[in-house]
Amino acid sequence: MKVFNTLSGQKEEFLPHPSQVKDEVKMYVCGVTPYDNCHIGHAMSYIIFDVIRRYLRFRGYKVKYVQNITDIDDKIIDRASKLGISPAELAQKYTDSYFEDMDALNIERADIYPRATEEIPKIIEVIQTLIDKGFAYPAGGSVYFRVRNVPDYGRLAHRNLAEVMAGTRIEPGEDKEHPMDFALWKASKPGEPCWESPWGQGRPGWHIECSAMSLKYLGDTLDIHGGGQDLIFPHHQNEIAQSESFTGVKPFVKYWLHNGLVQLGEEKMSKSLGNLITIKQALEEYSPDAIRIFILSSYYRSPLKYSEEALEAAERGAERLWQANEREGRGKQLDWSKFVEHQRQRFIDAMDDDFNTAQAVAVLFDLARDINRLGDEGYSVIHGQQLLAELAGVLGLALKPTRKLIKPVGIPSAEEFGIPTIITFPPKIDSEKDIENLIRQRDRLRKAKKWQEADKIRAKLDEMGVTLEDTPEGTIIRPKRKR
Ligand SMILES: [Zn+2]
């Protein structure tokens, strides 16, 4: 198995650090700063590391996965004060929203989610040791890291000290010795949340939080540290400087994995540019499987362009997989063993090559096509479906429209219809009641075999943005797709 390591700039054979537990992989991914709803950029990062974790497990590793929550930060303090609530209240609200989004996207929870505000003693301990070892110094109630004591600082971003230094400066109010130094502890301003420390009241900086938490929960050396490419510098470089100076053990991380960023148009999707699609907005339009297929259909290190066309295509792809997963085969027996082995190996070859999920998704589509073809020819398809479910599970696909909003209030139940009704997506409409009545009316007409009148109602529903599709399994109701 090969993974691309940002530190070496190359694909390397993946061998976990020899630790006490055999085949254990220690994985840390930088978590959210909960001050607003998460957007598709967050979805991309957390889906990719979810798939990496699932795949490692599929390959026989035990994965210990830690993700922090930066629940104290300038952005939280600023937004809370604008909204007139406490920073803690704001952070809790958006932490809840984050978990809601992750669950909806079928992202498995990490083993531990340490929160900055609950890890202050460990953070203080690490800072104190760094001061004792000469890697940090207190000044004006804050504590700064002495960057020039780390000769290979900048290595993760493939820059030397001179390149890193260009553009750094000392802001007014900072008591740094050198412009490159960064804050480990920040003296609090009046009215801000603060904690007692040997250097006075204050709060931790963002970088030290990740070092302290990974040390506490995973130890001196991590196998995988992940995050978006925008975190490589300075955040991850600072984590390396802090952790290695604290432990004296190199490397802090064996494999640095970074995902590309989501773009809307030509620009990076970001809060500061205001060009965001939140996860909740995307989930109103598309199924979780479609969002995952969209994200996994490109190489994770490349930038990903968000477009409705690409998501529509992913949605149709998801539907193809669901249909293949649910279709009935017939009695003709077939020896699936060679076929299953071949497709399974193709999937493994793809994923072993630095998680080539695009190729892995292509294997699932091929499998769906073969299931349909062989099913049509009268064969039993159960073995193909078992493999499809197994491999889809490694990519975190549920193989069904799993959304919570799946059954909109007011749509008549299958029993009332007398025929099963499969509702795949909630119609996004204002007059839900009218639609409900029209669907009931059409059903009555169909039962009475008044086809022409039933068709008129279908046309009317179509105008209202709802399409109906009658299948042998029942009627599928969907909102009309924008083309
Ligand atoms: Zn971090």
Task: Describe the structure in your own words.
With 483 residues, this protein is an alpha/beta fold. The protein has helices spanning 40-58, 74-83, 87-104, 120-132, 161-165, 206-218, 232-247, 279-285, 288-296, 308-326, 337-352, 357-376, 382-394, 414-417, 432-447, 451-463, and strands spanning 2-5, 10-13, 24-29, 62-67, 136-139, 142-145, 182-187, 202-204, 222-228, 253-259, 262-264, 267-268, 304-306, 421-423, 466-471, 474-479. It has 16 helices and 16 strands. Helix 9 packs across helix 10 (308-326), helix 11 (337-352) runs parallel beside helix 13 and helix 15 runs antiparallel to helix 16 (451-463). The chain has a four-stranded parallel beta sheet with strand order 4-3-9-10, with helices on both faces. Strands 5-6-7-8 form a four-stranded antiparallel beta sheet. Helices cover 44% and strands 15% of the residues. Zinc ion binds next to helix 7.
Features:
four-stranded parallel sheet; globular; binds zinc ion; alpha/beta; 44% helix; 16 strands; 483 residues; four-stranded antiparallel sheet
Task: Report the structural category.
Answer: alpha/beta
DSSP summary: helix tally: 16
Task: Report mean pLDDT, rounded to a whole number.
Answer: 89
Bound molecules: zinc ion
Largest sheet: 4 strands, parallel
Identify the quaternary structure here: single chain
Terminal-residue CA separation: 41 Å
Radius of gyration of CA atoms, rounded to a whole number: 26 Å
> Can you give the helix content as a percent range?
40-55%
Q: Count all strands and give the number.
A: 16
* Biggest β-sheet: strands ordered side by side in the sheet: 4-3-9-10
Instruction: Please report which band the strand proportion falls in: under 5%, 5-15%, 15-25%, 25-35%, 35-45% or over 45%.
Output: 15-25%
Sequence stretches where pLDDT stays below 50 over 5 or more residues: 404-430
- The gross shape turns out to be globular
